[in-house]
Sequence to fold (107 residues):
Amino acid sequence: MITHSPFTVESQTDLVGHFAVAGIKGNFEVRKLRSRRERPRIMVFRQDWQRAKPGDAVPPVAVIQIEKNGVNKLTVQTGEWSDLRDCQFNFTEQALEIFRTSVRHAN
Fold:
């Protein structure tokens, strides 16, 4: 399982956007690693990650790495949360759409 500390999420990622999923309590954040320009890495976190204590492991719901050739490497970890295990929502597609929209608006 991929995890990050709250410090890493705060200090090494930028908020790209957020969204809600019908039937799921709480919102989700789409964040990108600042250091990854040529091969962006986008992560979806539950918005309550900020409540984690220093040193806690904060797992992203999904991780998308966009390779130079345009291929996306996906890691989905919805099984880590009981309320997301049977969820049919496509977190990676939603994150990619938010990321692409932010890139278009930045240019």
